[in-house]
Amino acid sequence: MPYVEVQFKDEPNSAEYYRYGVKSLGESDLASLPLDGINDQHASQHIARQSAKGFQPTTINRDLGTLRRALSLARDWGKIQGLPKITLAKGERQRDRVLTPEEARQYLEACPQPWRDGATLILGSGMRPEEVCELRWEQVEFKGHGGKIRIIDAKTTAGKRPIPLLPEVYRALDGPDAYAMLKARHEAQGFPSAGWVFPTGSASGHMEEDPTRNGTRKR
Question: What total number of domains does the chain contain?
């Protein structure tokens, strides 16, 4: 818990997640086991016991997510040698929600630069945050009133893909115009043919993936 309170002092939801998990684990049979003696069988037993008490998979997985984090820290801190597999409970409901155009506009208006432009590209193209932060001009191709971005550095074959930039699609969906943003940024930087699209003074030289490091906060 001291680690949680320090690590997530600016993230109350994450801190509360782990507080609940620590309390629940402390009241379970897992609390009596040594760290290096916990394995996936114990996790399965915990799932069965908590399910019998009426707890839903989402709640049970909060316990097991906390356990995973604790074991990972124990390994990193030299308390245990290996990291056991901990399988989560099945049947957890996934809560996905798509932002409305108005919510997207409100978010973008609240974002400082360069994250506002980065978020515009994420919302307009579906790119992953890390892909946007590490985007280089060598990957961007402008063609008249459209263009495309080539993702070439990905862990999987499916991740390596072209992403079309079609202004008419943005207009049809009432979404942020990622193409216009990129054109304006390209012009402001002097029409470079290489280099970071979102350069900053960070150690990496480009915008960092964590939005909080770029000035955005929960509002």
Answer: 2
Do residues 71 and 35 make contact, with C-beta atoms less than 8 angstroms apart? yes
Environment class of 194 (CB within 10 Å of its CB; exposed 0-12, middle 13-18, buried 19+): exposed
75-89, 95-109, 123-137, 183-197: segment of lowest average pLDDT: 95-109
**163 lies in some domain:** yes
Q: Which amino acid is at 152?
A: I
* Full residue range of the structural domain in which residue 150 is found: 101-214
Same domain, 125 and 170: yes
Q: Considering the entire predicted model, what is its pTM?
A: 0.54
The H or E element that residue 130 is part of is: helix 129-133
Structure confidence at residue 219 as a pLDDT band (50, 70, 90):
very low
135 and 44 within one domain: no
